[in-house]
Amino acid sequence: MRSLVQAAIAILVVCALLFFAAHQLESRGSAGSQDTITVFNWGEYIDPDLIDQFTEETGIKVIYETFDSNEAMKTKIEQGGSAYDVAVPSEYMVEMMIEDELLLPIDHSKLPNLKNIDPYFLDLAFDPGNQYSIPYFWGTVGIVFNPTLVEDHLTFTTWEDLWDPSLQDKVFLVDGAREVMGMGLNSLGESLNSKDEALLQQATEKLISLSPNIKAIIGDEITPLMINNEATVALTWSGQAADMMWENEDLDFAVPEEGSNLWFDNFVIPKTAGNVDGAHAFINFMLDAENSAQNNDYVGYSTPNLAAMALMDPEVIEDERFYPSEELRDKLEVYENLGLEWLGKYNEYFLEFKMSLQ
Amino acid sequence: MFNKASKGSLFPYTIWIAFFVIAPIALIVYYSMLDLNGNFTFNNYKAFFTPVYLKMTLTSFWYAFLITLFTLIIAYPTAFLLTKTKHKHLWLMLIIIPSWINLLLKTYAFIGIFGLYGPVNAFIEVFGLESKQILFTDFSFIFVSVYIFIPFMIIPIFNSLDKLNPTLVYAARDLGASSFTTFRRVIFPLTIDGVKSGIQVTFIPALSLFMITRLIAGNKVITLGTAIEQQFLVSQNWGMGSTIAVFLIIIMVVIMLLTGQKKGGRA
Fold first, then answer.
1. What is the mean pLDDT of each run of 10 residues along chain B (267 residues)?
2. Measured between alpha carbons, how far is residue A202 from residues A184, A187, A349, B225 in Å?
3. Measured by CB atoms within 10 angstroms of the end CB, which terminus of chain A is less buried, N or C?
4. Strand, coil or helix: B221
């Protein structure tokens, strides 16, 4: 009994010490919110050197945190708790966050580098006039494949190629309802924002007919599998494809001509911000031509920053696979905010499709 | 049975149970009756009784059953042999240590082990067989889950075997029982409680596995856990997510009743 009491006391003491240490660390982080900002970003989505450079230039310390889905990010911001100053949601999430009044308006006069951004990417439907968001990166959804492992006639310029019988048990899909259902709708020549129950049903049936070809539906784990030649064909985002192609030169990427998704990730300043000036300074710093070029080199997604593109390797920006021409871009669609009811339906149909894989 | 003092000392536990057991379950039941707009509805329950979710419940059950069965088949003899060894607690320790490693790390390790160029395939090729993708199959899913649950099954069985009075075994042998009869009529019935708690700690979590279904089974196995995760994080339909959780709780209560010890105890 005595040793039990002693053990219990020891555990309590250790807990108290850890709690104290955590409290110390946290208060050091948020104390004097004028010289720190908290940036909430996707994983592997910024060149860490730039964060140090920013601190050197401005004296503002950066606390950097990452999330792995738009929804998880929104939930954390809604709950408050952490004082996030800058976050990077995708376009449909910007729209939802505006609706839910989670964002602060952005003061364009504090962002002189905004002039660097290609006007094509400004003033888009999800945030007219860029009142709440500034474009960070953009990209598409397409098919990354290994030409040495698939038959020659498969170029994936059409979604139909995924249904080719030679690909039995070879196709990987990304675990996202919008991406996969969108692919199903696109392959029927329909909009990936359809709100038509019959069309969704049709798309699901079309997807179910793909199930013999499906090897797995996974997340970021697809990257190492493609790099090691363990996977042959995968539906994925352009930036992820760029990462894979960087490591494995055999790989190729195509955006099917029937259309696909065009997406944007954007800087926003959440309502939780404690240092709004610092947040503006950070966004402006990231929009700087040189910094943006350096960041783009590291991250590998497509940049909307014209001035940065002028500084980059022409081979990169002339690569139509990642910088599609405007003509092709016009065939691509941006995800609309479907609303929770339809988002739920997309997920139900996606679930039905997943169930058919067994 | 309790005097006043012991009733008083039970107070913190009552509070604990009220806040951390009863309140969360009540909240789940409450949320399960709300639709997306927060209106009261039974539609979530209706939706659960559609083929998609019923099939999912059945497959979850089937896989949890297989996982528990294989875990038991491996864990019982292991625990039995362990009690016969000289340094049994050291051996038990060695078996338990891997469970200190984070579940996710172990799962990721299996992606490498089962990969096309991983050690398992290298081994298969030694025998002149063609390498194949072991990942993303039913087999790999069950294998990894069994591997993860084995220590949890071994501990309770080991404990009950360890407490077994050896004179009972000797008596059975003296009275002419064969090894098998001794096991069937004496050892197994006396350690059945350990087996039951082992089944509880394996079957119930196995019903709601979700990380492994994606990483190892590539979403080709969908369990109720996967569906709950999706409802909460992606669809943001807390109502439907809670409804599935309610059914999970019901299933768990049934399992507890079926495997519960009759004379007092933990049931």
1. 65 91 94 88 91 91 95 95 91 89 90 88 86 87 94 94 90 90 90 92 89 89 88 85 92 86 47
2. 9, 11, 10, 27
3. N
4. coil
Q: What pLDDT, on a 0 to 100 scale, did the predictor assign at position A32?
A: 46
Which pLDDT does position B265 carry in this prediction?
A: 43
Q: Which CATH superfamily is domain A139-262+328-355 in?
A: Periplasmic binding protein-like II (3.40.190.10)
Q: Mutation target for B interface from A67, A90, A351: give the one with most B CBs within 10 A.
A: A351
Residues 220..259 of B with a Cβ closer than 8 Å to A: which? 220-222, 227, 230-231, 233-237, 240
Contacts of A343 in chain B (CB under 8 A): 234-236
Under an 8 A CB cutoff, do B235 and A347 touch? Answer: yes
User: What is the bridge-based pairing of β-strands A36-42 and A61-67?
Assistant: parallel
How many independent structural domains does chain B possess?
1
**Which residues from A are below 8 Å from B133, CB to CB?**
169, 215, 230
Q: Where are the beta strands (DSSP E) in B63-182?
A: none
Q: Which two tokens stand for residue B234?
A: 């992606």
Taking only residues 324 to 353 of chain A, the set having a beta carbon closer than 8 angstroms to any beta carbon of chain B reads 340-341, 343-344, 347-348, 351-352
| Phi, psi at A155, each rounded to 5° | -115, -10
User: What number is the ipTM of this complex?
Assistant: 0.84
B125/chain A closest Cα distance in angstroms: 16
In a domain, B5, yes or no: no
- For residues A240 and A238, give the distance between their C-alpha atoms in angstroms, rounded to a whole number: 5
Residue ranges of the binding site of A: 44, 92
B221 → closest Cβ in A69, A351, A358: A358
CATH at residue B100: 1.10.3720.10
Tell me which of B136, B144, B210 to substitute to probe the interface with A (most A C-beta atoms closer than 10 Å).
Answer: B136
Tell whether B47 is covered by a domain. Answer: no
Residue A159: name the closest of A235, A229, A223 by CA.
A235
